[in-house]
Amino acid sequence: MNAKRWDKIATGVLYTISGIIVAILAALLLFILVRGLPHISWHFLTSPSKSYEAGGGIGIQLFNSFYLLIITMLISVPLSIGAGIYLAEYAKDNWVTNLIRTSIEILSSLPSVVVGLFGFLVFVLQAGFGFSILSGALALTFFNLPLLTRNVEEALKTVPFMQREAGLALGLSRWETVTRVIIPECLPGILTGIILGAGRIFGEAAALIYTSGQSAPALDFTNWNPMDIQSPLNIFRQAETLAVHIWKINSEGNLPDSLAVSAGSSAVLIIAVLLFNFLARYVGKKLYKKMTSAS
Which residue in 7, 92, 104, 218 is a FRET match for 253, CA 20 to 30 A apart? Predict the structure, then answer.
């Protein structure tokens, strides 16, 4: 059997494996969407959840998910960009940077339950934040920071070294070269990674069970004072997110329509994560075309 025939066989095997994986993923997504979409309505998306009573929605949980996502990204994005710039542009190749990169790899491989328990011990108990949005956001920062840092570092490394030399030759300082030449060039990759990280955070549950809490107190959406406990903007209140709500419904089973609520919530969560992924691809392509056309 000649090399060309072996190449065709290997290619066919790879295509078959890829097709099986795509088929399994598509079947899983279709199963969730087919079961959940009939239960989604404006009332379901905006009304508060109910305990021991049918007809509740996911309005507060959905708001908590987006609000927690915003707080987490406000904390983790600046830290990850700073860490990525340091590792890619300023850090020397020695045992210290190798230790930092190894620590990032280890931290990125930790299970989310471990991150949640860490957040429970450090932020909920020791720092005294209690079960709150702030505790959940800080725990998710440790969960998301390694991935964002690696994304920023790899995006910066894709920029050719000649552009760094060109910036320095024009009289720019090293920091000005990074901020005015390198970051604009790799901005599509950085934004794509940030949006994908946001989608991962939005669907996280295990780390939030031990940090942001498992209850969704009633919120007064006419009160935007962040110091009021009933204000939606208060970061020290408990905040059950959509993913935690799905876990809680299926574990407790205290709702007469728990199957319908769980199916609808799962469909909303899947749609949101898919939108994050499509948005990342769209933004990345648009920015890449804009950068290439401008150059």
Answer: 218
DSSP, res 89: I
Are 150 and 104 in contact by the 8 Å Cβ rule? The answer is yes
What contacts 250, CB < 8 A, 6 or more positions away? Answer: 258, 262
Write down the CATH superfamily of domain 40-294.
MetI-like (1.10.3720.10)
Domain map (residue ranges) of the chain: 40-294
d(CA 125, CA 127): 6
End-to-end CA distance of the chain: 50
* Identity at 78, one-letter amino acid code: P
Where does the chain have alpha helices with state H?
A: 3-36, 42-46, 59-85, 95-108, 112-119, 133-157, 161-169, 174-177, 183-202, 206-209, 242-252, 258-294
What would the two tokens of residue 94 be? 């020695």
Q: Which pLDDT does position 281 carry in this prediction? A: 80
- Taking only the tens place, the pLDDT of each residue in 62-110 is 999 999 999 999 999 999 999 999 988 888 888 888 888 888 888 888 8
CB atoms within 10 A of CB 164: 17
Q: Which whole number is the average pLDDT over 216-222?
A: 79
The confidence band for 188, taking pLDDT boundaries of 50, 70 and 90, is: confident
What would the two tokens of residue 71 be?
């707080």
> What is the separation of C-alpha 146 from the centre of its chain, rounded to a whole number of angstroms?
12
Residues 65, 118, 144, 59: what is their CA dihedral angle, to the nearest 10 degrees? Answer: 0
Please, which pLDDT band fits residue 8 given cuts at 50, 70 and 90? confident
Rounded to 5 degrees, what are φ and ψ at 224?
A: -110, 25
Contacts of 32 (CB under 8 A, 6+ apart): 263, 266, 267, 270
Taking 90 as the threshold, does the pLDDT of residue 252 lie above it?
no
